[in-house]
Amino acid sequence: MRGVRTLRAYLLAAHAGPTVAVxxxxxxxxLDVGRGPGGIAWAASAMFAGQLSVGWSNDWIDRDRDRExxxxxxxxxxxxxxxxxxxxxxxxxxxxxxxxxxGSGWRAAAAHAVALxxxxxxxxxxxxxxxxxxxxxxxxGLLPAFVVLGLPGHPWPAWWLVAxxxxxxxxxxxxxxxxxxxxxxxxxxxxxxxRLGAQTSAVTGALLLAAAAVVLALGPPGPPGVAGWLCxxxxxxxxxxxxxxxxxxxxxxxxxxxxxxxxxxxxxxxILR
Length: 273
Description:
Elements: H1 2-13, H2 16-32, H3 36-61, H4 63-68, H5 83-101, H6 106-124, H7 134-148, H8 159-176, H9 181-186, H10 192-196, H11 198-218, H12 225-248, H13 253-272
C-alpha cells in the first residue's frame, strides 16, 4: 500500500497531465513522419523521461514556496516524499532522458538537450523574469526538431513546423498561468504574464494560439483541407471572443477554457499536417 502511495506521489509531482500529453504528441509526430516502431520508442521514451525531470524539478525547486502557500495538492507539502528523493529523481530522469535521446542520433539529442536546458532554466530562475516566455518558445519549437532530426539523413524540420511549435509554446505559457496569476504574485513570481496582467495575458495567449493555427493551416504546401480551415476559424473566433471578454475584465475562466480548446485543436492540426 505504501508503494502505491509513493508511486502516486511521484506521478503527481511529475505533473502527469502535461507529461503524458507532450509524450503522446511526440510519439504521434514520430509515427506521422515515419520514424518506425524503434524510432517512435526512442523518441517517446526520451521525451517521457525529460518531462518527468521537468515536472519533478519544478516541485522540488518550488517546495518552500508551495509550503508557504499551503499547497495540499503538492506531495512535498504533504510530506508524501522526502525532498532529497524528489530532487535526486529529477536529476536521474534528466540523465536518462539525455541518454535515451542518443537513440535518435546526436543531432536530435542536442536539440532535446537544449529544450531541456530551457525548461530547467525556467524552473530555476526565468519564471520570475520578463523573459519567462523564452524557454517555452525554445522548448516547444525544438520538439518537432527532435523528432524529425531522428530520420535517416537527419533533415531539419520545415520552418512552419518549428514556428508552429514555438507559437504553441508561447501561447501555452500565457494561458497556463491565468488561473494562478494572483497567487503567484503573492510569492514573488513576476514572469511576463504577471507583468502584463490577466486581461492582456489572456488576449496575448489567444492571439499566439490563433497565429499557430494560421501557420499550421497555411504554412505547409497544398490546400489546408477541412481540418485546417476549421482550426483556423476556431483560432480567429476564440481570439476575438477572448479579446472582448478581457476588455470587460472579470473572471478569466472562460478565456482560459477557450484557449485550451484552441491549443488542443492546434496540436491535432500539427499532427495531421
